[in-house]
Specification:
With 1058 residues, the protein is an alpha+beta fold. Among the domains are: 198 residues, Methylamine Dehydrogenase, Chain H (7 Propeller); 152 residues, Methylamine Dehydrogenase, Chain H (7 Propeller); 148 residues, no CATH class; 100 residues, Hect, E3 ligase catalytic fold. Helices cover 31% and strands 21% of the residues. The chain has 27 helices and 39 strands. A hairpin with a 4-residue loop joins strand 12 and strand 13. Helix 9 packs antiparallel against helix 10, helix 18 crosses helix 19 and helix 26 packs across helix 27. The radius of gyration is 40 Å and the shape is elongated. This is Probable E3 ubiquitin-protein ligase HERC4 isoform X2. One of its GO terms (biological process) is ubiquitin-dependent protein catabolic process. Keywords: Cytoplasm, Repeat, Transferase, Ubl conjugation pathway.
Length: 1058
């Protein structure tokens, strides 16, 4: 059997006890009229009460001064409100003297006082509105799910997450800013909250709250006692974030006249605002401007809270106890007396512990029972308002669970894109018309940012306290739901989604969202199957991208942060979507009109800008996906990138037509190589043209000497370094732009590229010899870095920089084992921990241990801001910062120590050497073309890479003369080659091409040629490195071929003519 208990003020009959002459009930009394009847909800006004039953009937009792009982007279006993005899009331809320009710058909009714337009009927009036009347503007489609009433204002929440307000605005309690009339007579949507997934609304005397599904609290209105929890006493005319409780996992809020109460996921209670009657429960009468936890309730798991005008209730079902504190003059504390209480006291009654519905587990094992009554009851729900309190209970044998305010009630919460919605979609047959329910759900959820932002939240409340570090989204759930929609047999489902997104959602997205929770959809929507189809680029995908681009700085930073935390596969999906759009637009047939041209240009621009944002995030986030995942391989076939580069150079990056050179990350290695060589040709042509001009002038002006159009170096093999230095030192800047030719003294080979390749190989091999001491060799990584203790003049580093530039300009790869940090510095990018890890893995490992250490860093590591380096056998102590020897490394400054260490190794200690190198490099490879490269790409341009594909080498080989793929000599040659070790294969590559590394374009760029030669099997194979041409005698014996080939590759230096 169920029972309703009540206590508190009864002077107007608001407890419904009928014939009682008492003005108050100081402890709970049973309301006999509802014994055995199931209660839907009870709501209390200042001096009246509404009671809704499960059967849909509504009862009222108490004062009827303003017609708030929905009938002619006041009543001391609950009487049926006749206006709802044909409807089922499911939701009620009481203001001081007015009421709102919602029926099962989602119709909204209002009655009572309307002096400030709180009934939302269109015009405020001083007449008594005793008859509940339908509130226009709300229908079944708008679907009201919650209502809350302040003294003279009303707040309404609909299923699409919209908040509507009406009534008194004298303190800003409507959240509408400055209103000339100080009120609203009709419900108006609170647009500044659009997009937020609202989980609950609440209203106090003259203030209001909205709580999101992830526990973000917004308050507005009167704040003279700090009841908004903002740390001050200023009223707020707009919803304002309560920052102090953002991470407290708030699940429920309720309000008194001038105080507020919060319930957390763990069952904790915070109170704030007016405390003069003890209603905050902090054992004092002080006001609190910020939410403060009720200390005496700590250790108990509270699952329900309720506020009266100046008192508070809290239910701990595992103990079977209700605690009360605050004003007690009308007996509203239920303690048996009328004293105020400023700390939690127990409400007297025959209560026994209950089971909590879906609440967190509790360690509270107390099972005390108040046995002063012969009968025992389990408390299901507590209610309060004005100076009265109610309690809905049940006998233990009914096994009725206590309600938990921390959990969402399905019919009173935001619509989200969940399995129920999608299963109804999937159930529609292929050729059937969409049921109205399915159409309505799809339209609501895909037109409402709030619905989408509240969808796919992480389970177990891990979405609570959303922040830059926690978006709260379950991407696996999102992908599963969207896959179900994709597989729905009825194509009208997708048509409905497309139309709703295009016509309703995308045009409504704001530039400045109200909070982090309002931008989750930017992570969620791209997983919708619609985004996989680039046909929708102009209507959905690119307008969605434009919304991202248009977001204000704060929202943009959050999106970037969230993107940086995505899994590789999820991040790559975003990249793929907009790469597909670019390819789709470029492949479209010729535009028929100017409008179509503009649409395509807009689509390209938006797609490229989104890709730029993603690339920037990827580049700064330690590469979530490989940088080459941004390559658009089709670009070079669809766009004249040479012309694009020339226009880009001439326009100097100014606005106007889109240039792909402003988005170099989409160029693959082949495209960038083409651009680099285009720049090289432009630079060289300018230099050559200048030479020819001077040569022509010399015919008429004898003082001008003819100049060679090539940069020719004459090198003696016995003095490669010195000859190079001497000759490069005599060249001017324009000479470095000329094509490089190398002549080895005493050798006949003409330089068609092969001699030049060998020259670089020999030169760098000698320069890197330890005898020069220019570079420090790191054994653990087998890499080199500038030696800060070298005796060599900076001009040597300058010339090495020139050589690196010449190698790039002349399409020659060289063996220079620098870490990627060098190329980062050349491109003016910061050097980070990963770069230290590449050069000095052991040191980086120790640094990581320092970062990860959780105990006393100072005691464990005994470090200060000093680095010890070897200086010709002697240890040298170098301070990383001023007075570093006297500054210990601690947990607080360890990041500073590591940054200073990295800065010393890569920057400060080698500043002179690197600047000289950089200056030399820029002499040849300066200019905007360098801006197109990623450090790894620039590295591959200089030193090539070791991504060997020996099968590709064999597949692309060509044959001359009588040789062909199935010739016996060729067959045994490749058999021998396949059996060689990797080291031997690399030596063969060096022998034949002049380098043991391959260009950035891959092995396909190393095309080799094999031709027969005269003589017998006693002759060695001969390489023409200029042409990658191998003279291969007509071997018939495999072992003989192996012997002669290996002999030849071991003698790979020197050129000769056959």
């Amino acid at each position: 059997m169920t029972a309703v208990f009540c206590w508190g003020g009864a002077s107007q009959g608001q407890l419904g006890l009928g014939g009682s002459e008492e003005q108050k009930a100081v402890q709970p009394q049973q309301l006999e009229v509802f014994q055995g009847r199931e209660i839907q909800q009870i709501s209390c006004g200042l001096e009246h009460t509404l009671i809704a039953l499960k059967d849909g009937s509504l009862y009222s009792c108490g004062s009827n001064t303003y017609g708030q009982l929905g009938k002619e007279k006041s009543s001391g006993k609950p009487e049926l409100v006749g206006a709802f005899e044909t409807g089922m009331v499911r939701l009620i809320a009481c203001g001081a003297y007015h009421n709102i009710a919602v029926t099962d058909s989602k119709q909204v009714y209002s009655w009572g006082q309307n002096s400030h337009g709180q009934l939302g009927r269109g015009e405020a009036d001083k007449n008594f509105n005793r008859v509940p009347r339908l509130l226009k503007g709300f229908s079944a489609s708008s679907c009201v799910i919650q209502v809350a009433c302040g003294d003279k204002h009303t707040v309404i929440l609909t299923r699409d997450g919209s908040i509507f307000v009406c009534g008194d605005h004298s303190h800003g309690q409507l959240g509408m800013g400055n209103l000339p009339q100080g009120r609203l007579d009709c419900p108006v949507k609170l647009k500044c909250m659009l997009g937020l997934p609202i989980g609950q609304i609440a209203a106090g005397g003259h203030h209001s709250f909205a709580l999101t599904l992830s526990g973000t609290l917004f308050g507005w209105g009167k704040n003279n006692f700090g009841q908004l929890g903002l740390g001050d006493e200023k009223d707020r005319l707009f919803p304002t974030l309560a920052k102090s409780v953002r991470n407290q996992k708030i699940k429920y809020v309720c309000c008194g006249e001038d105080h507020s109460v919060l319930l957390t996921q763990e069952g904790g209670v915070f109170t704030f605002g007016a405390g003069s009657h003890g209603q905050l429960g902090h054992n004092s009468l002080n006001n609190e401007l910020l939410p403060r936890k009720v200390f005496e309730l700590m250790g108990s798991e509270v699952t329900q809270i309720a506020s009266g005008r100046r008192h508070t209730l809290a239910l701990v079902p595992l103990r079977g106890r209700v605690y009360s504190f605050g004003l007690g003059a009308s007996g509203q504390l239920g303690t048996g007396n009328t004293s105020n209480c400023n700390s939690p006291s127990t409400v007297k009654g025959p209560w026994v512990p209950a089971v909590v519905t879906n609440g967190p587990s509790s360690s509270d094992s107390s099972m005390e029972v108040d046995d002063t009554k012969s009968e025992a009851y389990v408390i299901r729900t507590i209610y309060s308002g004005g100076d009265q309190c109610f309690m809905y209970t049940a006998k233990p044998d009914l096994h009725m669970r206590a309600e938990d305010f921390r959990t969402q009630k399905p019919h009173y919460t935001l619509l989200t894109l969940n399995e129920d919605v999608v299963e109804r979609c999937v159930a529609v047959q292929k050729d059937a018309r969409l049921p109205l329910e399915v159409t309505a759900d799809l339209e609501m959820v895909f037109s409402s940012a709030s619905c989408l932002n509240g969808s796919f939240l992480l389970r177990d409340n891990r979405h609570l306290g959303s922040s830059r570090l926690n978006h709260g989204i379950d991407f696996d759930a999102a992908q599963e739901i969207f896959q179900m929609l994709k597989n729905a047999p009825n194509t009208l489902i997708s048509h409905q989604i497309c139309a709703t997104l295009e016509q309703k959602l995308l045009p409504s997205l704001p530039i400045s969202p109200p909070d982090i929770e309002a931008i989750r959809l930017y992570l969620v929507l791209p997983f919708c199957h619609i985004f996989e189809n680039p046909n929708f680029y102009s209507t959905i995908i690119c307008p969605f991208g434009q919304s991202i681009i248009s977001l204000d700085k704060v929202a943009t930073k959050v999106i970037d942060q969230w993107w940086s935390k995505l899994r590789s596969r999820d991040f790559k999906k975003l990249v793929t979507i907009y790469k597909q759009c670019v390819v789709f637009i470029l492949q479209e047939p010729h535009a028929k009109n100017e409008f179509e041209v503009l649409v395509r240009q807009k689509g390209l621009h938006v797609s490229m800008e989104i890709l730029r944002k993603l690339y920037t995030v990827n580049d700064g986030g330690g590469q979530i996906i490989p940088y080459d995942s941004f390559y658009i391989w089709e670009l070079k076939d669809k766009v004249d990138i040479r012309a694009d580069y020339v226009n880009w150079i001439q326009s100097k990056g100014s606005g106007g037509m889109l240039s792909f050179c402003n988005f170099p990350f989409v160029f693959d290695a082949q495209a960038k190589t083409l651009l680099l060589h285009t720049d090289a040709v432009m630079q060289m042509q300018l230099a050559v043209d200048e030479v020819h001009r001077r040569n022509f002038s010399s015919l008429f002006i004898p003082t001008i000497d003819p100049v060679n159009p090539c940069l020719v170096l004459y090198i003696d093999r016995r003095s490669v370094v010195q000859d190079t230095i001497n000759q490069l030192a005599k060249q001017g800047s324009t000479d470095f732009k000329k094509p490089l030719k190398v002549v080895f003294l005493g050798e006949e080979a003409q330089d068609e590229g092969g001699v030049r390749k060998e020259f670089f190989l020999l030169l760098l091999r000698e320069i890197l010899d330890p005898k020069y001491g220019m570079f420090r060799y790191y054994e653990e990584s087998r890499m080199i870095w500038f030696n800060n203790k070298t005796f060599e003049d900076p001009v040597m580093f300058f010339l090495i920089g020139v050589l690196c530039g010449l190698a790039i300009y002349n399409n020659t790869i060289i063996d220079l084992p620098f870490p990627q940090a060098l190329y980062k510095k050349l491109l003016k990018r910061p050097v980070v921990m990963d770069d230290l890890r590449e050069l000095m893995p052991d040191v980086a490992k120790n640094m990581q241990e320092l970062l990860d250490y959780e105990d006393d860093v100072q005691e464990a590591f005994c470090l200060n801001f000093v680095i010890v380096q070897d200086n010709f056998g002697e240890p040298e102590h170098i301070e990383l910062i001023p007075d570093g020897a006297n500054i210990d490394v601690t947990a607080e400054n360890r990041h500073q120590y590591i940054d200073a260490y990295i800065d010393h190794i890569f920057n400060k200690s080698v500043q002179t050497q690197f600047e000289a190198f950089h200056t030399g490099f820029l002499k040849v490879c300066g200019g905007r073309v360098m801006d197109l490269f990623h450090p790894a790409e620039l590295q591959a341009m200089v030193v090539g890479n070791e991504n060997y594909d020996w099968e590709e080498l064999e597949k692309t080989a060509e044959y001359k003369g009588e040789y062909w793929r199935n010739h016996h000599t060729i067959k045994i040659f490749w058999e021998v080659f396949r059996e060689m070790t990797v080291s031997q294969k690399k030596k063969f590559l060096l022998f034949l091409t002049g380098s043991d590394r391959i260009p950035i374009l891959g092995m396909k760029a190393v095309k080799i040629f094999i031709q027969p030669t005269g003589g017998g099997e006693d002759y060695l194979p001969v390489a023409h490195t200029c042409f990658n041409l191998l003279d291969l005698p007509k071997f018939t014996n495999k072992d003989k071929l192996r012997q002669k080939l290996l002999q030849a590759v071991e003698q790979s230096e020197g050129f000769g003519l056959v």
